[in-house]
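URGENT: need a sanity check before tomorrow's submission.

F., can you look over the Carboxymuconolactone decarboxylase family protein record below? I want to be sure the sequence and structure line up before it goes out.
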Amino acid sequence: MRLDRPRIEPLKDEEFTEEHKDALGYFLKQGWVLNIFRTLVRAPRAFKRFNVWGGYVLSERNDLPPRARELIILRTGWLCKAGYEWGQHVEIGRDCGLTDAEIERIKQGPDAREWTPLERALLQATDELVTDHFITDATWQALSGLTEKQRMDVVFTVGQYTQVSMILNSFGIQLDAGMELDPDLRKR
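Structure tokens as predicted:
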């Protein structure tokens, strides 16, 4: 975590206006509103648009298999030093079939020996997008087992979660109740 307190405070339930409640509708119906949403809803119109794109990236409309998507999201969160993002997506990654050993190995990146060639290429593409905002020809070729749409979704996913990481880090969004910060992110 970059900050130990929020720069922008998340709204409490009693602070929600009708506009906030409208923007948070789905989350209120589910009975849980995460700190990221409690913070972003301070700009309710932006929040609604943000959720449309984020909803695409996390949905079945994203053609990447969920496991591959979570591999990319976790690597992006790790590279961006986004403790909140990492913590949320460790659980989602497990639900999508990533093992604890694989999640730990994501920290090492594409050079860890145990990755399949496609997993290595996904991690390499993520590293390149986060650091240089460009996938090299060699990595693009290594992704040739993916469809054109899946390659597009690699870029869309890294882009979305780089933005999310910037938001989390800069606004100082704190972990939700029950979450623990990965000890390795304390050192970074």
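My own read: The chain has two domains: 13-57, 66-187. Residues 21 and 28 are 8 Å apart (CA to CA). If you see anything odd, call me.
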